[in-house]
Amino acid sequence: MQFIDKVVWITGASSGIGEALAYQFAHQGAKLIISARREEELQRVKQNIKSECLIITLDITDSTSLATAVQTAINHYQKIDILVNNAGISQRSLVVDTQEIVDRKIMEINYFGTINLTKKILPYMIAHGSGQIAVVSSIVGAVGFPLRSAYAASKHALHGFFETLQLELKPENNIFITIICPGRIKTNISYNALNYDGSAYQKMDEGQEKGMNADICAQKILAAIYRKKREVYIGSFDILLIYFKRYLPTLFYWIASRVKPT
Ligand SMILES: NC(=O)c1ccc[n+]([C@@H]2O[C@H](COP(=O)([O-])OP(=O)(O)OC[C@H]3O[C@@H](n4cnc5c(N)ncnc54)[C@H](OP(=O)(O)O)[C@@H]3O)[C@@H](O)[C@H]2O)c1
């Protein structure tokens, strides 16, 4: 019971990695807040959880409703120990085709939504004298990848923001940042990914289908949060791309331009 009585807020908890995280945290004794847009899916997740679980339905891009959501959470639990910024959306389109609306929508959800919620919760953590903020980035938060220009940009932006936040926090704040970079995980992410015109891709990619199981990914995320790791890479061979880019950049460009992106 590593997270006993910790109040953990998970965004994007209506499916995939977020749903798996909700079950793992509940299993480890946490009190939960689960958020996403689809209320009925959150209800379904809640039914599988025995411990305390508050549903706060929200659209992460709606800045005004985020303020109300934070107030609801604080009124209910009086504190938030761990925020897991997990809500996100991907992309399947070439730069040359992608319409501006898609670039903006992905940045709104993955970047602005995430930092807005974080900035609203941060003052409560500072006042409380402790906290932990995890953000689910991606391997493409560290490298570029075909058909993912806006998605990779949004995840790279999260690294800049959260690394800076960690540097600004003082030891007495007792607040830790964990940046999580999964490779391909088997979830509905490719179904929900955006095409060049903003329509949903609605396919299970072959690469996604062969990805890591979401429960295993969630276990590794909990371990990283428990150990207060600054950054963690979760996946199989795909995480090698990060090391190739760092130490063998020519090899990285050779592989990443040839690997099947779907
Ligand atoms: N699967 C992978 O291979 C992979 C790899 C690296 C990183 N990631 C990251 O992992 C995170 C979770 O993705 P997943 O793979 O679990 O995909 P998923 O099954 O599609 O889950 C995405 C979650 O984000 C929520 N969401 C989307 N737009 C939202 C909005 N505007 N407001 C609030 N919630 C919103 C969705 O809920 P509603 O639709 O109900 O709002 C859903 O719960 C994402 O940040 C993704 O970038 C995934």
Mind sketching the topology for me?
Elements: E1 7-11, H1 16-27, E2 31-36, H2 39-47, E3 53-57, H3 63-77, E4 82-85, H4 100-128, E5 131-136, H5 149-168, E6 175-182, E7 185-186, H6 189-192, H7 206-209, E8 212-213, H8 214-226, E9 231-234, H9 240-247, H10 249-256
Parallel strand pairs: 1-2, 1-4, 2-3, 4-5, 5-6, 6-9, 7-8
Bound molecules: NADP nicotinamide-adenine-dinucleotide phosphate.
Task: Describe, in plain words, how this protein is organized in 3D.
- The protein has a single domain (7-256), classed as NAD(P)-binding Rossmann-like Domain (Rossmann fold), CATH 3.40.50.720.
- It has ten helices and nine strands.
- The chain has a seven-stranded parallel β-sheet, with helices on both faces. The protein has a two-stranded parallel sheet with strand order 7-8.
- The chain is an alpha/beta fold.
- The termini are far apart.
- Belongs to the short-chain dehydrogenases/reductases (SDR) family.
- This is SDR family oxidoreductase.
- InterPro entries: NAD(P)-bd_dom_sf (IPR036291), Sc_DH/Rdtase_CS (IPR020904), SDR_fam (IPR002347), SDR_family_member_7 (IPR053011).
